[in-house]
Amino acid sequence: MKNDLTLSSSTLALEMGSSPQTAWRRLLAQEGEGYISRVVTNEGQRVRITERGALRLKAEYEDYQRIFEGLQEVRIRGRVVSGLGEGEYYISREGYRRQFSEKIGFDPSPGTLNLKLDEPFGLDESDPKSIRIEGFEDEGRTFGACRCRPVGIEGIKGAIVRPDRTSYPASLLELIAPVNLRKALGLADGDEVELVLR
Q1: What digits encode the pLDDT tens for the residues 51-83?
Q2: Which domains does the chain have, with CATH numbers?
Q3: In angstroms, how far is CA 174 from the centroid of its own chain?
Q4: What are phi and psi of 4, to 5 degrees?
Q5: Helix H segments across the chain?
Q6: Over the stretch 128-181, which tens digit does the pLDDT of each residue have?
Q7: Which of 78, 111, 112 is nearest to 193 (CA)?
């Protein structure tokens, strides 16, 4: 997970019990999905798991925990950080508000609460509990689609929001809720918050 691995297709084929051609095709497919990066060297190829690949593995690991260990809920912790101050503008757009209300079950308070995690958190179409919010046009401007994931935030119903196009790293979460979370929970930058994935 943390280092490159020098790997030949024939070595991978032995591990997989397949032909070197099948192993090579598997590597190409994983690279095409963005799960690994490869650099060809004289010794073979150096392979690294990307952030996207690590997030996918973590999601599978959590699925296995639920299946084999009876894990009922996943909890994640993060620290409150200030954002760019744009959340209120976007969350207040009627095209988003209507969909949040219909698909997540609440009308969000303007703005978002930002949490910085120690590890990245994946939220994409592979998460069966993620909810798609479609993009739209308003006042001659295009607003992009996003994904949401329902969560509990210190007993308050909320959701993680991740725009399809964002400059934020996967270790930074934006949260919405029917109340202003900073005020309702008395939060300041640096405070730790625990989320329960629903």
Answers
A1: 778 777 776 776 676 677 766 677 889 999 988
A2: 5-49 (1.10.10.10), 72-197 (2.40.30.30)
A3: 11
A4: -70, 160
A5: 9-16, 20-32, 51-69, 87-91, 94-103, 181-185
A6: 788 999 999 988 889 999 999 999 998 899 999 998 887 778 888 999 999 999
A7: 78
